[in-house]
Design goal:
The protein is α+β, with helices and mostly antiparallel strands. The chain has one domain: NTF2-like, domain 1 (Nuclear Transport Factor 2, Chain: A). It contains four helices and seven strands. Strands 3, 4, 5, 6 and 7 form a five-stranded antiparallel sheet that branches. A two-stranded antiparallel sheet has the order 1-2. The protein is globular, with a radius of gyration of 14 Å. It starts with a helix and ends with a strand.
């Protein structure tokens, strides 16, 4: 079981590092690791991220809060059907890692995309690492906005 967890964690770290190389990534995490997930409450108007009060942006914030808590049940509720099979893997990537959201803001950009700024800090083998947040693809399923993977 430890080998599976280590493999999943390693895959996620490689995937995150490669995602950070994308020219579309314009986010930068600058907060101290002690920033709390509760500080991720969206603010009304932020032109750098779009409409932070839109239900799609709120869904992404709730998804990220669940992810740093490794709360697979809440993540599943907020994930589209096409991505549901990845929920457990994504939740496990931060389980027991003292993960926290850092200065997180997300805003509705268009019909399919929520733009996020900030990051996630997590402890791996005693070292705190910070990951920039990507932008997220969102879909409206059964009248509810759901996260459906990362956006380009």
């Amino acid at each position: 079981m430890r080998r599976v967890f280590a493999f999943v964690t390693l895959c996620w770290l490689v995937w995150t590092a490669l995602s950070a190389c994308s020219p579309d990534q314009q986010t930068q995490a600058t907060a101290a690791p002690e920033a709390l997930a509760s500080e991720a409450t969206p603010e009304p108007a932020d032109p750098s991220v779009g409409d932070t009060q839109h239900p799609a942006a709120q869904a992404v914030i709730r998804y990220l809060e669940a992810r740093v808590r490794a709360d697979a049940d809440t993540m599943r509720e907020l994930t589209c059907a096409a991505e549901e099979s990845r929920v457990v893997t994504l939740a496990l990537s931060f389980q027991g890692r003292d993960a926290k959201l850092l200065e997180t803001k997300c805003g509705y950009a268009d019909e399919e995309r929520v733009v996020c700024q900030g990051g996630i800090s997590a402890s791996y083998q005693g070292e705190v690492r910070t990951f920039d947040l990507p932008n997220y693809r969102v879909v409206l399923e059964d009248g509810t906005w759901r996260v459906c993977g990362e956006a380009q």
